[in-house]
Amino acid sequence: MQVSILTNGPGELWGWARPVIHELKKRGCDVSLWLLPCQYASGHEREAANLLGVNKIYYNLNIINLWRGLKHEKADAVLQLGGDLFWGNIIAEANNLKLFSYSYGNKKGLHKAMAFTAFNSQLKLFKNLKDIKAIGDLVKDALKLDIIENNFVWESLKPKVLYLPGSRPKIRRAVMPWLAEFNKSLNNLIKIDFKTLLPVFASDGEILEWQAAGLNPVKAPAGVVMSQADFAITQPGTNNFELMHSGLPALVIAPESFLDVIPLSGLKGLASKFLSRNIKRKALMKVIAKWGGYISLTNRIADKFIVDEMWGDLSINQIALKACEILNDKAKLKLEREELLNLSGLNNLSASEILCNELLNIKY
Asked: What is the pTM of this model?
C-alpha cells in the first residue's frame, strides 16, 4: 500500500511523522514523504528524514514544482501532519481519496478532512467539525522511540535541571543571553547540574555557540534526556507535552521580554517582527484568557494547575527564586511527577497505531 505523508516543520516531522512512519513501515507500507515549505525550518530536515526509512522524500520544491508533483502523486492514502491543508487536498483529489489530518487545533480546510487530535479537551477547539476524533498524542509515541534508539546517560548528585530553548533556531539564539544570565542567577541560589537540550536538527555551529555561552548543550533524543532530569525550565509550546509524558516537573515561563521573539500565528505571524510589544501583549492576553488563564499546554489540557508557570513583567531573579523554591520542595516535585504521568495516561493502543488503523481502514 502506498501512503503519502505531508509535514512542514521540524517538530511535526520528528514528533508526529516519525512514529507514524515507523508504524506504517512495520505494516509493510511504502511511504513517500513531502516536506512542505516552513518558515521555521532548520535546513537539516532532509538529513533527519533520511533516517526514517521512507521510500521517497520530496524537499525544497518551489511552489510550481510542488503543485505539479502533488498533482501527479499516486497514493492509496494521504495524511497531512502540519502545514496548509491545500497541499494535502491536491493529492487526495487527484486520487479520489479522503484527506486524513492530525492537529492540535482547528485550521482552514480541516472540514474537508478526516481529522484527529490528541486529547478530549482539545475537541472544543474544532468548532462545527463532525469528523474529528481524539486518539492520543503522537509525541508520546515519538518519546518511546527516543528511549529505544539512544543510550544517553545523565548521572549527578546535584538536582539535574534541563533548559529547553525551543525548536526554532531564531528563538533559541534570541533567548540564549537571557538563559545564560538566568543560569548564573539560579546557580547562586542552589547548586545544580544543568544541560540545554537542542533538537536533533541543530547544527554543529549552534552547539559551539551554546558551549561558548556556558550552557552545556546536548543533542540527544528528548525522551531520553527528559526521563533522567529532575526539573525543566521552558516556554509555552509542544515540548510541554513531552515533559508531561516524561513525568518531568517544570516551570513554564513567558517573560514580557520574550514578546520580541515570540511568533504569532496567521497573518500577524508573518509580520510579527514589525508589531509592537503592546500589540503582542494584547494578543497573548486574549490567548491566555481563552484558556482560563493558563500558559502551559499541560495545565490547559488538565484545566487546572499542575505545572508551575510565570508570565508577565518578570525579572530574571524572580524566576530564579521561584525555580529554587520548587527544587527545594521534594514532596511537591514527587506529586507533580505523579500527576503528569496520570494525565499522560496508559492506552491499549498508541496514537500512531490508531491513526494507521484508520488510515488503512483496519477494524480494531
From this structure: 0.88
Helices (H), the chain: 10-12, 18-26, 45-49, 63-71, 85-94, 138-149, 169-189, 204-212, 222-228, 239-246, 266-270, 277-290, 297-302, 316-327, 330-344, 351-359
Residue type, 173: R
CA distance 42 to 14: 13
Q: How far apart are CA 104 and CA 310, in angstroms?
A: 23
- Cα distances from 168 to residues 92, 105, 137, 235, 265, in angstroms, run 30, 20, 21, 12, 14
Give the bridge partners for 6, in sequence order: 34, 80
C-alpha 291/C-alpha 236 separation (Å) is: 13
Task: For residue 127, name the pLDDT band (cuts at 50, 70, 90).
Answer: confident
Separation CA 79–CA 222 (nearest Å): 25
Question: Closest Cα to residue 240, out of 301, 291, 320?
Answer: 301
Q: How far apart are CA 240 and CA 11, in angstroms?
A: 13
Phi and psi at 253, nearest 5°, equal: -125, 150
- 158-192 confidence digits (pLDDT tens): 999 999 998 878 788 889 999 999 999 999 999 99
* Grid cell locating 153: 546517560
Per-residue pLDDT band at 193 (split at 50, 70, 90): very high
